[in-house]
Amino acid sequence: MVNKKLSKEELQSLNSFQTINNEIVVEVGAAELRINVLQKQKEILLERFQTLQVDQKEFGSEMQKKYGDGNIDLEKGEFTAAE
To answer: d(Cα 32, Cα 34) in Å, to the nearest integer?
Structure first.
């Protein structure tokens, strides 16, 4: 088998391709880690949102028992009974 020497330019090109490939692989890995962190944060936020909905429903039921049907003006802090 005959070995042939690569030119300096060819070797530089191949090394450049390898370097860029390695950088891309590292960046893809970092992106995947960020995606994983964001997915976990999303799961936590969705759980908090579900808890909030339950709390709001329970509080709404308590308010309805106390004041009856109607509307609440949050800015004025007033309840207006339904007619």
So the answer is: 5
pLDDT band at 83 (very low <50, low <70, confident <90, very high): confident
Over residues 14-64, the pLDDT tens digits come to 999 999 999 999 999 999 999 999 999 999 999 999 999 999 999 999 999
Q: Structurally, how many domains does the chain consist of?
A: 1
Whether the CB-CB separation of 81 and 67 falls below 8 Å is answered with yes
Whether 57 maps to a domain, the answer reads yes
71 within 8 A of 63, measured Cβ to Cβ? no
Contact present, 60 and 74 (Cβ < 8 Å)? no
Residue written as tokens 């390898």? 18
